[in-house]
Design a protein that fits this description.
Mean pLDDT: 78
Radius of gyration: 21 Å
Number of strands: 15
Order of helices and strands: HHHHHHHHHHHHEEEEEEEEEEEEEEEH
Number of helices: 13
C-alpha cells in the first residue's frame, strides 16, 4: 500500500493516523508502539497522557507556543517518528529496562537542582577569581554580581548579542520577559549545561560552559528567539537570529524546535532550517547542516530523533528522519531516512551497522563502527 501521497504535504497527529482509512493495519501497528514508547516512560517529565492530543506538526513553524513548548517538541517528534518510514526499536526481552538517552531527556541522579547548580557556579567563579585576579572583574559582572542562574545567563547572552544599535539593556529586558513567560527555557538551559559537562571531555566545570562555550550560548539565544517567534514577534526573532549568526557563527532559524540536553560541540558553521525538529540528548559538531529541500510551505527540513550523534560536517537534507540513537559519520550527506540505532557514513550516507541499543551521544565516538573490515 502506498505510504503518504507526499510526506511533506501531510504529517498529521497520531489521532488522525489512527482514524485514517488510508492506512493498513500494519501501518497502524507501527504507529502505536512508537507512541507507547513515549507514553510509557514513568518518571519522565516529557511523557504524555494517553488522551493528550498531539499537535499538528505541519504547523510547527507558525504556531509554536510557550508554556508547553518542550513537551510539544517531544509529542510532535513522537508523531513524526511514528509516521516516518523508520521502524522504531521496541523493547526487547533481555535488554535492561534502564533509561537510555535515545528515550528522551529525564532528570538523572547526578543532575543538580537549580539552586545547587547556581551555588556550584558561584563557587567555581570565586575560585577562578582567586586563581586569576585579571578575570576577577569579568567574573563578578558575569556571575558573582547576580542573585540567580537565570539572571547571570541573561546578562551573558545580552552582552554577547548587543550591537551599536541593539543595546544590552534592551536585550536584558527581552530575555527577562521570556524567562518569566516560559520557565521551561531556564530548565532547558540547565539540561543543556549538564549535557556539555557529561559529554564534552574538554569541559571541566560549569563556569567554563556558561562563560566560554559558544555552542551552549548560541542554543540558549535561539531558545529566546524561538519563544519570540511563537509569540508572533517574528521580526525581533529574526533580528536575534541575525545577531546570533554574527556573534557565534551559528545560524538557526527561530522556528526550529529543540528538546533538552543539546550539545553543539565547537558549533562553528552549524545551520538549522525553519521546520527542523531536534529531539532530546542530541549531539552535533561543527559545520552540521539540517537543511531544507524545495520551496513549498510544508515541512522541508529534517527530524532528528533523541540521542543522535551528528559528526563534523554532516548535512541532513530535506524532509527526512534520523531515528533515535543513530550516528552519522563526519562529512556524510543524509538524503533518506535512517533507522533507529543505525550507523551511517558516506555521500550519500549508507547504513554500515545497526545495533539493538547503541547510544552514540554518550560515547561521542566519531570513529568506531565506520571501518568494519579492511585488508592491508
Amino acid at each position: 500500500m502506498q505510504f503518504f501521497a507526499g510526506r511533506a504535504a501531510h504529517r498529521g497527529s497520531v489521532g488522525q493516523l489512527q482514524s485514517s482509512a488510508s492506512f493498513s493495519n500494519k501501518r497502524v501497528n507501527r504507529v502505536l508502539p512508537a507512541l507507547a514508547l513515549w507514553q510509557g516512560r514513568s518518571g519522565h517529565s516529557g511523557s504524555v497522557a494517553a488522551n493528550t492530543a498531539v499537535p499538528d506538526v505541519s504547523q510547527l513553524g507558525a504556531s509554536w507556543r510557550t508554556a508547553a513548548d518542550l513537551d510539544s517538541v517531544r509529542q510532535s517528534l513522537a508523531a513524526r517518528l511514528a509516521t516516518a518510514d523508520v521502524v522504531t526499536q521496541p523493547a526487547q526481552p533481555g535488554l535492561s529496562a534502564d533509561w537510555h538517552p535515545s528515550q528522551g531527556w529525564r532528570l538523572m541522579p547526578h543532575h543538580l537542582s537549580k539552586e545547587q547548580l547556581w551555588q556550584r557556579i558561584r563557587h567555581e567563579a570565586k575560585a577562578d577569581a582567586d586563581a586569576e585576579p585579571t578575570l576577577a572583574s569579568f567574573l563578578y559582572s558575569s556571575i558573582l554580581g547576580h542573585s540567580s542562574f537565570e539572571k547571570s545567563l541573561n546578562f551573558i547572552l545580552a552582552n554577547k548579542l548587543a550591537s551599536p544599535t541593539l543595546y544590552s539593556t534592551q536585550l536584558v529586558k527581552i530575555i527577562e520577559d521570556c524567562y518569566y513567560e516560559d520557565r521551561a527555557i531556564v530548565d532547558a538551559a540547565m539540561a543543556d549545561m549538564q549535557a556539555v559537562l557529561d559529554r564534552d571531555p574538554a569541559c571541566d566545570k560549569y563556569t567554563q560552559c556558561l562563560l566560554y562555550f559558544k555552542g551552549y550560548q548560541a542554543i540558549q539565544c535561539q531558545r529566546i528567539a524561538h519563544h519570540l517567534w511563537g509569540k508572533g514577534r517574528k521580526m525581533l526573532a529574526v533580528a536575534l537570529q541575525s545577531r546570533i549568526s554574527e556573534a557565534f557563527h551559528v545560524d538557526i532559524h527561530p522556528a526550529a524546535t529543540f528538546g533538552r540536553g543539546i550539545l553543539l560541540d565547537h558549533a562553528t558553521g552549524v545551520v538549522v532550517g525553519e521546520t527542523a525538529v531536534v529531539g532530546d540528548n542530541v549531539s552535533m559538531l561543527h559545520h552540521v547542516t539540517l537543511g531544507g529541500s524545495g520551496t513549498g510551505k510544508g515541512i522541508r527540513h529534517p527530524t532528528i530523533g533523541h540521542g543522535v550523534l551528528l559528526g563534523a560536517g554532516v548535512s541532513v537534507l530535506g524532509n527526512v528522519t534520523v531515528g533515535c540513537g543513530a550516528k552519522v559519520g563526519a562529512g556524510s550527506v543524509v538524503v533518506s531516512d535512517l533507522p533507529c540505532h543505525s550507523v551511517a557514513v558516506g555521500v550519500p550516507a549508507r547504513i554500515v551497522k545497526q545495533t539493538a541499543r547503541a547510544e552514540p551521544c554518550q560515547t561521542m565516538d566519531q570513529i568506531e563502527d565506520f571501518i568494519l573490515d579492511y585488508v592491508i
